[in-house]
Every structure is written in C-alpha cells, then in structure tokens.
Sequence to fold (255 residues):
Amino acid sequence: MDKKNIMNSQQDKYAETAFWDQVSRQRIYAAFDEDEYKEVLDKVWGSQMQDLKIADIGSASGVSAALFAACGAKVTGIEISPDLVTQAQDLWKNYSDRINFVVGDAENLDLPDSSQDAVFFGGVLHHIPLLDQVYSEAWRVLKPGGKLVAIEPNQADFLELIEWGVADLRGKLTPNEYPMNPLAMRNELRHAGFIKPRFWTIRSDIPVLNQIPLIKLFFSRKKGFSIKKPLLSLLNAFRSPEKRGNFFVMVAQKS
Fold:
C-alpha cells in the first residue's frame, strides 16, 4: 500500500487491516445475510447482471462477490485485509474465472478509468472518516451511467444508535467505525457529481437485544419477531421513512 496515501488518509489503515486479518482467522465474514444481498441485487439490477463488471470494494470473505458472479457478473473483489483476500480465494475457487480477489484500498483503487459498470460497498463506507477521495475514485472507475451501490448502518434509526453505543462499550467496533446519515450521504453524492441518488432502509430490528447475555438467546436477528414486530410497527408509525431501518441502501449513478 502506498505510504504517501496512508499518510494523507484519515482512516487508520494499519489498525483496520489488523482488525480484519484477525476476523479472517475467526470466521467467514459477510456484513449482511445472503437474502439481504439478494434483495438488494434484485432491486437494483433484477436479472440484468450478465457480464456486468463490478468492483466489490471491501469484499471481506467474498460472499457478496460470489453472489454477483453467480448472477453472471465479472467481479473484482477489493479488500484491505490480505488474510481475508486469501480466505476468499480459497472459498470461491469455483468462481475463479469470474472473480479476481486482490488487496486494495477504497481511497486508491488500482482499476482503469471508466472500466466498471458498478462499484459496490457492502458495509464499507462507514469505516472511512472522510469520503471525498472514495467518491472521487468511484466516479473515476465507473463507466458513464455506472452505479454506485452502498449498504450502510443508519444513523437516523435510534435503535441502531443504541446498539452502536453498547458495541463500543464492549470493544466490538473497529477504530474507524461510525453510523451514517442517509440524507447527508445523498447530498454528498450530489456534490461529488453523482446523479439520481436514492435510498431505502432495510433490516428493521432491535439489534441491541442480540448483545445482551441470556436475552440474545431469544432475540437474535432471526428470533423473537413475534414480540419485536408489533413493537417496531408501533414505533415506525410515528417515524419518517429514513428512520425505519437499521441499515440503508444508497444507489447513485455517474452521468
């Protein structure tokens, strides 16, 4: 990694790399469930993914990249952690003709200008304190009409903020993480030159319950919705749309 670029960035890249190298030794990591990825893919592209060139930035263990490849896309999986890159290469050998996993950095992409139909950030942008350079690089590598697609933790959802506070106290966050405001991000993308930025929320849940011993046995991401669903429905009746999900999906286009 270019030392000059590291010094110019406000992200602690050494700490970020060390954190994710450690994760690779603990588990296969994906920021979202497979059905959540599939829902986003279907809403953004439908069945129109054959031979699309997609840069999956922050590709982690390669789960999202493999889903892109299964839909016919040609993927470059870019990940800051060398150990996660090695893990992904081992996991997805059956897609080696459609995925190239490489070590890289969202602020300094080793990709040609106007070469990608899409750049995908699956829970990545909230690890980078200033996003100007990321947006600039995404714009540079996208073809005209290409799409930026991101899924990020929703600062507008107070339930997500509570979970972040507890996770911070438990030491479960990386050195750079912060939730993002979808309205602010939409304005940032417009300022960066992207057109038609739009977003919607996903995963309406009470995530802090999954961090409390004993209680998490009954209320995980897959459990306890007979109780959580009516409570969330009541809360959402009084909340604006951008506040009704733990995460948001942002889609914007290069003119």
